[in-house]
Structure formats: C-alpha cells, structure tokens
C-alpha cells in the first residue's frame, strides 16, 4: 500500500480542487490519501463525490497552533467534523486569516513591494487565505523565485519582516479537542527549521504526555539526520511516525506520494479513530 497522509487542495492553499486532488492521487498510484486542508473541512464533499475506485480517502485538517511563541501545525485525522467545540475553534482561525493576510500585504507594501490585496485575493480564490497565497504573489512579482523562498526572516517566516500574527490554537487544547471529536493527532513537520523557529524536543515530550498520537517524520523539510533523530524520539515517547508529501499542487515542487506512511501505522491511526472512518472510493462522478 502507498499512503500519503498530508495533502492540501484549493479549499485552503493548494492549487488542485478536491476533485482534481483525488484524481491526481489515484494517477500517482496511491492507495490512501488524506485531505488535510488548513483549518477547514470545506473540501470533503467534493473529494468524496469524486473519489476514484481503488483510492481511500482519510478526512482530516491541519490545525494552526502556537506554543511559547512558536507556530506549529497539528494534523488531525478522522475526527467528527460537526463536533461543535472543534468546529468553533476552526472558524475562529479562519475568520482571522483575512485580516492577517491584509496586514502582511500592508507590511510588504511598506517594504516597497508592489503587492496588492486584490492580487492575493485572486490567488486565494475560494480557498482559506494564508501565507502561501501571499508567497505566490511574491513569486508572481519576481520578488522571490519560489514559494519556499518567501518563508524566510526577510519575508514571511515567523517573526519575519512581513509576518503577522493570527488566532491560533494552543496545541494542548488542539489535542484535547480532536480527541473529544474522536480524532487522532500528528505533529506536522516538527523539525522544519527552514520555516523558522521550531519547538524543542522537551515540548514534544509534553505534547506526547498530553495525548499526542504521532509525529510526521518523513517530510521534504527534514533531512536524513533529522529523520533519524525524530524516529529515536518517537520510540522514546511511544509516538507513531508518519510520512507525507505535504502536497500543495503546483505551489510546491513535492509530488503526491513522494513520502509515505507505513501501512501498519496507518492501520493504528484508523483503529484509534472513532469520529469518522476512511472513505473507500467507488468510482466518483467528479461532482460535489
């Protein structure tokens, strides 16, 4: 089995519609794909309606969190999307995205970048606006070469010159809320230092003690020594280890299935989840 547990659609900051994403996942030879858009479940319906035969969809989300001033992302799998407390927190984060993006545009303009809010809104379309949309605008303007190049202290990284805060969950609250909604939590790219500051391993130990299920190890932003170190930490803390592409369509260079999760780990995630079940494809129509 080939399993990719971290992908994004145009419902947040990917470039593929949910229907295009599941079609691309099947074409890439995946057996299982997780849709984990940022702080939204808005892509579920279309992805399920278009799900090809032979591909299983894991519903999820990537939750925006902050701990001791450091931003981090929590992958939540197979939770009940209608559980009210978690739904309310996702809505608070989404509502703060537009003012935050506008503030980043204002800061970039003050730095002499000819960016406009209209440009960022066009790029975001119907998706949940975020830093990758602002980064794409910088690419369009020739300010940086790639989206990843915008996530530096010079531009949009945490604490960077054009960074702006937004409402984010405390990760301990995120773990509690996801668990109460029947879901499973995995700390996304926990050592992605190229994105900015990361939490120390002692914080990961605290999260594990609070009920964190796993950490994402095999990821494009982790080099081999980092992956080996994270595997050792996971063994020490009794955490599951996943691998995922963090696919964003053409917004990033990584392809679907470039990094994958062991089938036994996937099986354990599904065993722990009670809020929702993986959806097997039966030949989707492509319509929501």
Could you describe the 3D structure shown?
This protein is an alpha/beta fold. The chain contains ten helices and eight strands. Strands 1, 2, 3, 4, 5, 6, 7 and 8 form an eight-stranded mixed β-sheet that branches. Helix 4 packs across helix 5 (131-140). The longest helix has 27 residues, at 84-110. The radius of gyration is 18 Å and the shape is globular. The two termini are 27 Å apart. The model has no long low-confidence stretch (mean pLDDT 94).
Summarize the structure.
By secondary structure, this protein is of the alpha/beta class. The chain is 38% helix and 15% strand.
Order of helices and strands: EHEHEEHHHHHEHEHEHE
Tally of individual helices: 10
Q: Give the rounded overall mean pLDDT.
A: 94
Q: What distance lies between the first and last C-alpha atoms, to the nearest angstrom?
A: 27 Å
Q: Low-confidence parts, pLDDT < 50 over ≥5 residues?
A: none
Radius of gyration from CA coordinates = 18 Å
Number of strand elements = 8
Structural class: alpha/beta
Beta-strand fraction estimate: 15-25%
Give the overall form. Answer: globular
Biggest beta-sheet profile: 8 strands, mixed
Helix content: 25-40%
